Amino acid sequence: MANEWGPLGALAGEWESDKGGLDTAFSHSQGKVLGTPYLEKCTMKPFGPVDNGSQHLYGLDYRSAMWRGDEENPFHTEVGYWLWDAATGEILKGFVVPRGITTLAGGIAAADATEFTLKAAMGGAQYGIGENTYLAQNASTLSYEVTITLGEDTWSYDEVTILKMKEFDEPFPHTDHNTLRRVG
Ligand code: HEM
After folding, report:
1. What percent of the chain has pLDDT over 90?
2. Considering the entire predicted model, what is its pTM?
3. Average model confidence (pLDDT) for the chain?
4. pLDDT surpassing 80 at residue 151
5. How many angstroms separate the CA atoms of 161 and 96, rounded?
6. How many domains does the chain have?
7. In the predicted model, is pLDDT for residue 1 greater than 70?
8. Does residue 66 have its Cβ closer than 6 Å to ligand 1?
9. Is the pLDDT of residue 25 over 80?
10. Left if phi > 0, otherwise alpha if psi is -120 to 50, otherwise beta: which for 133?
11. Is 140 in the pocket of ligand 1 (CB under 6 A)?
12. Ligand 1: which atom is nearest the Cα of residue 163?
């Protein structure tokens, strides 16, 4: 794909994983921390430019879903946008998790980078997190960090979401990682 999309160009397309994803979260139904293998489907559609004055962003409109097995409904979904600003090397991932959380994570990368990291923090001046009132009181997202690694028709992510949960005295690391392969 044309390099207007910088490192995001390699992510455009349709992607799937086998059941190699791994989620670590506190399960309320089981009352303990669980490691859950999952499979995933993801589509990333290119768009752009989006002009903010002299800034020209190119992006991917994305949607992803994760399943534990062959159940009908995914147990986690995201919709959002990846954005690339070639002038500054800034990459953004703005997305919604339908628990009632919205995150804008950001970082800096070279146009030909094959690995990059984005971060957001609760109360962050630029890269922040918004959440509903229940979550603010019971399971508040303190920070989010994701590292993307690009391969040949494959890419991986490794992410850590730090939660302040009423079940634990210390901040709890809710982690997810997966590798997706191109299917379209
Ligand atoms: C592949 C990505 C993800 C998967 C598969 C996933 C999955 C899960 C699962 C299974 C739970 C436990 C629910 C329960 O049994 O009570 C959970 C909890 C939670 N997740 Fe995620 N999650 C992912 C990413 C994220 C991200 C990126 C955020 C925030 C930016 C997030 C925020 C939360 C919060 C706040 C809870 C706690 C809800 C509660 O305790 O009431 N998750 N997630």
Report:
1. 97
2. 0.97
3. 97
4. yes
5. 14
6. 1
7. no
8. yes
9. yes
10. alpha
11. no
12. 35
For residue 26, report the distance from its CA to the centre of ligand 1, in Å.
8
Q: What is the CATH number of the domain that holds 115?
A: 2.40.128.20
What is the SS3 assignment for 28-42?
A: CCCCEEEEEEEEEEE
Q: Please tell me the distance between residue 48's alpha carbon and the centre of ligand 1 in angstroms.
A: 31
Instruction: Determine if ligand 1 sits within 6 Å of the CB of residue 150.
Output: no
Whole-number pLDDT of residue 184: 86
Report helix, strand or coil for 8: helix
Q: Is 25 in the pocket of ligand 1 (CB under 6 A)?
A: yes
Mean pLDDT, residues 109-131 = 97
- CA of residue 32 to ligand 1 center, whole Å: 14
Query: Residue 111: which domain range?
Result: 3-182
For residue 21, which atom of ligand 1 is closest to its CA? 1
Is 83 close to ligand 1, i.e. is its CB under 6 Å away?
Answer: no
Tokens of 21: 């994803």
Q: How far apart are CA 159 and CA 77, in angstroms?
A: 15
pLDDT of the residue at 137: 98
**pLDDT at 50 (0 to 100):** 98
